[in-house]
Amino acid sequence: MTSMPWVDAEVARVGRLFADGRLAHALLVGGPSGLGKRVFAEQLAQRILCRDPRDGLACGECRDCRAFQNRYQLDELETAPDGSLAHPDGHPGHPDARFIGFAWKLKPKPKAMRKELVIDQIRELSEWFYKSSHNGGAKIALIRPAELLNANAANALLKTLEEPQPGRFLMLIADRPERLAITLRSRCQRFSPRPPSRDDALAWLASQGHAGETAQSALDLADGLPLRAISYIEDDVIALQEAVRRDLGNAATGKQAPFSLAKEWMADRPTLRLELAVALVRNLGRKKLAAGKTPSDLTARVDFPKLAAWADRANRARSLFDTSIRHELLIGELLLDWRVAFSESSGQAA
Ligand SMILES: [Zn+2]
Hints:
Number of helices: 14
Strand order of the largest sheet: 2-5-6-1-7
Low-confidence stretches: 73-91
Strand content: 5-15%
Number of strands: 7
CATH topology of the largest domain: Rossmann fold
CATH class of the largest domain: Alpha Beta
Mean pLDDT: 84
CATH superfamily of the largest domain: P-loop containing nucleotide triphosphate hydrolases
Radius of gyration: 23 Å
Order of helices and strands: HEHHEEEHEHEHEHHHHHHHH
Bound molecules: zinc ion
Largest sheet: 5 strands, parallel
């Protein structure tokens, strides 16, 4: 696995808590996607199971480390395609580590991946926790995405947390930890890697073969999160950002009708476009703060409170894409409001 210094630092710190017997039984690893939470949780789990940790990190060579690394990744399928929820015996990986993610639905056919974590998975986990570990050491379960535990599963998990057992560790990994039930959250110790400084992030991106202006733009767009920056570079999101900037300019001046733009946005990565639009507003705000005046690249005069409110709505619209409402209409109305915001605040736009 590629070394990520900002992740390693937190693994070493939390690993020391474990060595001192001060690590809580339930850990919440929360924060934006692209921070390295999954890598952090996996490395910490390996560090806890490792027989011979070095410099606060797993050695990568002992039998436990080798067993841990010999497994499916957490974002690959967690369950057998026949729909069984448990790892079948002989599943590659460390016998004292378990990964809980989306499982397959048995019915109706054709088989489909569930969109939430269900109670059977938590019951099975509790039973597994009760059995003794293979090497007499700790047992660790990683749950991701924890915010998608459904209500029954969350209640079952709460029971497990209320009766902690020695040497059993649970890691809840969530992009949106605030969506977890407060009863669960309050029982967890919170950890997360801290994002690297801009210079460190750029150095790391360079070490991954991404340098120059592209890396810088991607990192800015990714809010300083290096893994997200890499996915932006790989998906050519910088070009898409330019398109969104141009479209918003055209919508503001009335050069293009909001609902015809909405059609175009719907045809190609609509939620990402909304995300980029929000990032654009955020960057406008930052530049304004830095310059002490309104920047001139998008508009001559901008009403920032109004734009901030618009960005909030765009964010909400993005989350509505999980539901079955009429998305094109939603984006159309949003772009109409964008135009209205400009005509009201300045009556002109560059
Ligand atoms: Zn090891």
